[in-house]
Amino acid sequence: MEKSTNEKLDYGIMSVEDVYKLAREFLKAKEGTKAINLSYEDRNMINVLSKQAFFGKFDETKIKVGFLDLVGKDRVQLWKSLANLSKEEAMNRYVLLINKVCPLFYAHLEAHKRNLEDEKNRIRLIEEEQRRQKEMMEQKEKKLREEDLKQIEENKKKREEIQRKQIQEALNQQTYPHFKAYAEQQHPNNAQAQEELIKQLQEQHFEQYMNQVYQQQLLHQQQQAEQLRALKKAQKKQEQQTEEEFKKLYVNETESNKNHESVNMTMVSEKSDQANGNRDNSDVANNASLISKKEENEEDDNEEDEEEEEELPPISAASMLTRKDIKEFKESVRRDNDAIIKVGSGETVTVRVPTHEDGRLIFWEFATDYYDLGFGLYFEWTISPSNNVTVHVSDSSDDEEGEEEEGKQDPEKGDKSNENKPPCDEIIPIFRRDCHEEVYAGSHLYPGKGVYLLKFDNSYSLWRSKTLYYRVYYSK
Prior knowledge:
Elements: H1 16-30, H2 40-55, H3 70-82, H4 87-101, H5 104-186, H6 191-281, H7 284-310, E1 319-323, H8 326-333, E2 340-343, E3 348-354, E4 361-368, E5 373-380, E6 390-394, H9 396-408, E7 424-433, E8 439-445, E9 451-457, E10 466-475
Antiparallel strand pairs: 1-8, 2-10, 3-6, 3-9, 4-8, 4-10, 5-7, 5-9
Helix pairs in contact: 1-4, 2-3, 2-4, 5-6
């Protein structure tokens, strides 16, 4: 089904940029086949819209066309006619033009949309099922905890009751002779009245004994609390005294350093005056010999510096391992949004991690959702101005820009693009990792000062984007 260029295609859940990339890939796959036949004007318009979407408005100061390049002149005029067309509109017109010249693209787009929607629905169902299972597990765990607490409380009550009975039986055995003698005096020749009195006296004695025990426990707890408050108060007072002593020591040391610096400045000024007087009276021949020796020493130092720069220290091998706690790892990473990156189809994400002055080792951990991802580790011998971790994303558009810049280079001057680049060593080559099944982790000993490049490669995937969870840190 063919759509008019004036209509806007239904992109569904896809963005204009995603559909634009899909159209570019479709054109590369179908160009030169019977499925698509481009006229001269269509080919020029496709090229110009692609440049407008990537570079923006035509800039005469940056782009020069040869005198005999007729195709280039036509494309420049066509590019100028687009004027201030936005990048989003240029992408949209590019998609509509591809759909016009090749009606098969519409079916291709619809199939891709259905795949994305099916994938989204599948993920949604999986998340709902996981959420439902999680709620069931939480309810089950809650019920088990309540049953455990209830059982613990019942056991506690049983132990207390047993202890009360044991204490009461022991007290009854001790007091029975005394209470029996007293009951016989009160109720002579009446055994039943004697037993009731003995039982009443034993219960009263037991209650009095337990009240005394509770009062002693309460008093002991109060004494412990007072001792703890006194200990905290003494520690706080000692910390304040220590802090005041450090402040006094710091002030005295600062004043002594200032006095020492003033004395040194006075001595230096006196020495410089004496040196100036001696220099005026020195011989010219001695000056010439000193200058020649100085030049020789500077040349030797320069040669040594060049040799040191050329010889880089060796790099040790990195250690790699995998863990099965991928679910817990993702949950911990989700608390930090900066540690989650979406690696688009055909893209390579480079995480630049400068070495830390207080560190000796770099550690990394990463995992993905549902699909694998390529990973490699490199070390760039350069000094970073800061310790901030940065993320760089490259795709096929960056490759196109590099090709156009290569076309502008002067053949007589040669290629000087790599002269100023710092040296870079490969530590771990890029291979596809099954990081959707387990957590990949590793460490490496600092070879020196520089920047680690953690490369996550998804260039082999033409359709699927990957969600990356990662964590990078250093250790002393």
